[in-house]
Structure formats: structure tokens, C-alpha cells
């Protein structure tokens, strides 16, 4: 059954919220980055058309209860994205994903966003398992997942080509230990 809902997750410094058409120009400025494209499905270069596709696509996926991939708002501007992807109601599980624009990295924003996403997934959406898939050499992202208690469950060799090299992906999981 499809449903439409507004999701707003308030942290100490950030707000996670659905992207709007008016975010398109900002999205182009922060997402047009080879580093993001290396580790996420976002294209590089990243155009206004790409931004519009993502804004429409994420809204559509939220309305279909398939994913909740939200903008990270800080100081009234979008600085990245984070949320639940590939949500499975039958399995009560979802992937987590995140990226932060380069001017805003190293300030704990991804960590703060992931904490909000975990709380949303486990407490509000009543999921039992969250998982993240990360390339073996993405040590910052691995540190973020491990910092929130995610544990390694699988290695997927030759998962993708990065800078001409076949790299291994790691799958991390986090289980909801509160009663369903
Ligand atoms: C990975 C990414 C989201 C991190 O965002 P961020 O907001 O800079 O992350 P945080 O500031 O929350 O840092 C998380 C941890 O990594 C550490 N860290 C941050 N930048 C680092 C760097 N350049 N080198 C080493 N460690 C670093 C931080 O110290 C922190 O560890 P701590 O909590 O133990 O102090 C961001 O670099 C990014 O968008 N990269 C490209 C896309 C991507 O890789 N997405 C994830 C796909 S799985």
C-alpha cells in the first residue's frame, strides 16, 4: 500500500528533510564532486537535470515507501544527503546511505545524520535490521558505521571498479535489540 508522509528528523545541528525543487541549485554545487561519485551512485559531473531527477526520484520513492533518502540541512542550506534506501517491509530491514559535501566534511555531520537515520529506522519505522555497503578503501565511512555499532557480515570481492581497480565491498549490519 502506498502512503505519503512528511519526514523531518531534528538533530542538534542538522535537520533531515525531503528535498524540494528549490534545493536544486544547492544540490548541484555540493554534489558535483568526483569523490562522491566514486562511492555512491551519483554521477560526475552532476548537472541541474541530475539534481531534478534526484529530487523527484527521492520524493517518489518516499511516497511508495521504498526509501527515505533525505537532504541534510544545516544553517538553512542542504549540505548532503542521508537516509534509508532499499527498504523492505517484509524483512523489516533497510540499507543506510549518506554523503556530505566536501566543504562540510570532518565536522561530524555524517555521524550525526546516521544517528538520526538509525533512530528513525528502529524506533519510528520499527525495522529490525539496518545494513550498509561500503568499499573496502573508504575508511572514513567504515569508521562511521563501526562507530554506531555496525558489524561486518560479508565481503564482496571485485564488487566495483574504482579508478581502474576492482575493489572489494564490505557489508555491515546493525540489529535492533529493542522488542519489536
Ligand atoms: C564519508 C563521508 C559521508 C563522511 O562525512 P563526514 O561528515 O566528514 O564524517 P564525520 O565528520 O561524521 O566523520 C566520521 C569519522 O571519520 C573521521 N574522519 C573524517 N574525515 C576524515 C579523514 N579525512 N580522514 C580520516 N578520518 C576522517 C572523523 O574523525 C570521524 O571519526 P570519529 O567520530 O571517531 O571522530 C564523506 O566523506 C563523503 O560524503 N564521502 C563521499 C561519499 C561517501 O563515501 N559516502 C559513503 C558511501 S558508503
How would you sum up this structure, described in words?
With 180 residues, this protein is an alpha+beta fold. It has a domain at 8-127: Gcn5-related N-acetyltransferase (GNAT) (Aminopeptidase). The chain is 31% helix and 35% strand. It has helices at residues 24-31, 34-39, 48-63, 109-124, 139-147, and strands at residues 8-10, 15-17, 68-74, 77-88, 93-100, 129-135, 151-162, 165-175. An eight-stranded mixed beta sheet has the order 1-2-3-4-5-6-8-7, sandwiched between helices. Strand 4 and strand 5 form a beta hairpin. The two termini are 21 Å apart. 30% of the residues are buried. It binds coenzyme A. Coenzyme A (COA) binds at residues 35-36, 39-40, 98-100, 105-111, 134, 138, 140-141, 143-144, 147.
Topology:
Blueprint (H helix, E strand, L loop, with lengths): L7 E3 L4 E3 L6 H8 L2 H6 L8 H16 L4 E7 L2 E12 L4 E8 L8 H16 L4 E7 L3 H9 L3 E12 L2 E11 L5
Parallel strand pairs: 5-6
Antiparallel strand pairs: 1-2, 2-3, 3-4, 4-5, 6-8, 7-8
Bound molecules: coenzyme A (COA).
Amino acid at each position: 500500500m502506498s502512503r505519503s508522509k512528511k519526514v523531518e528528523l531534528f538533530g542538534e545541528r542538522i535537520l533531515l528533510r525531503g528535498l524540494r525543487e528549490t534545493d536544486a541549485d544547492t544540490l548541484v554545487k555540493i554534489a558535483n564532486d568526483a569523490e562522491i561519485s566514486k562511492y555512491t551512485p551519483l554521477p560526475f559531473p552532476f548537472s541541474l537535470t541530475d539534481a531534478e531527477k534526484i529530487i523527484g526520484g527521492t520524493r517518489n520513492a518516499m511516497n511508495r515507501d521504498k526509501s527515505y533518502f533525505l537532504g541534510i540541512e544545516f544553517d538553512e542550506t542542504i549540505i548532503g544527503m542521508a537516509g534509508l534506501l532499499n527498504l523492505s517491509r517484509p524483512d523489516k530491514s533497510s540499507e543506510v546511505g549518506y554523503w556530505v559535501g566536501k566543504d562540510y566534511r570532518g565536522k561530524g555531520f555524517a555521524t550525526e545524520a546516521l544517528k538520526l537515520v538509525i533512530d528513525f529506522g528502529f524506533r519510528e519505522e520499527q525495522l529490525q535490521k539496518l545494513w550498509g555497503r561500503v568499499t573496502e578503501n573508504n575508511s572514513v565511512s567504515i569508521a562511521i558505521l563501526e562507530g554506531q555499532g555496525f558489524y561486518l557480515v560479508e565481503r564482496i570481492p571485485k564488487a566495483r571498479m574504482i579508478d581502474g581497480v576492482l575493489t572489494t565491498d564490505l557489508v555491515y549490519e546493525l540489529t535492533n535489540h529493542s522488542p519489536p
